[in-house]
Amino acid sequence: GNKNINSKLVLLGDVGAGKSSLVLRFVKGQFIEFQESTIGAAFFSQTLAVNDATVKFEIWDTAGQERYHSLAPMYYRGAAAAIIVYDISNQASFERAKKWVQELQSQGNPNMVMALAGNKADLVDTRKVAAEANATGFVLQLTCLQEEAQQYAQENGLFFMETSAKTAANVNEIFHEIAKRLPRV
Ligand code: GTP
Ligand code: MG
């Protein structure tokens, strides 16, 4: 029969990586060019049908600012799933994402379904144009990061997708993939 699954999901990642934008896209189908930085955390819920089940995500969109770091365990504790978000045009945000993965591996629920989202995938084309114009090698850098992220995800038991809250690319897909991987109780 059809199963109803309630699932707590947390988004973690560097300031400005696009956590709130991904949630806004997923829950409301919207994108805001000047999304305000989250204070503390924000709560949303969204229901998704997958195969044999209806998954109700209870989503905690955390604040990336360092001063809120100590609040994070409240949101990831007991979470069934996490999306760790970085910005593909910002290497430092990828390093920050890896720190979050480490923290979840040591402090989080061991059965947590974890996704790594390389967000702002739409910026690749912008960078390509810039790189062709001034030969900065940006394309190479971004390409390497994608492979690096994929490999990192594989080694650490996450699944990886590049997303864009702006164009909606892979946004529903990443939540859908999480829903499929949640344990069926
Ligand atoms: P904090 O709440 O401060 O931790 O940041 P956040 O991770 O929630 O980032 P937020 O969603 O606020 O996005 C930061 C900025 O990046 C905003 O101006 C967004 O419009 C922009 N942004 C988010 N996602 C994308 C994307 O996929 N593509 C592009 N081009 N811009 C994006
Ligand atoms: Mg935010």
From TrEMBL:
UniProt KW Transferase keyword = no
- How is this protein annotated for GO cellular component? endosome membrane
Coiled-coil segments: none
Record-linked CDD domains: Rab5_related
- Compartments where found: Endosome membrane; Prevacuolar compartment membrane
Pfam families with a match to the protein in the record = Ras
One example GO MF annotation:
GTP binding
Family indicated by similarity: Belongs to the small GTPase superfamily. Rab family.
PANTHER family xrefs: PTHR47978
Q: What is this protein called?
A: Ras-related protein RABF2b
Species, as recorded: Morella rubra (Chinese bayberry)
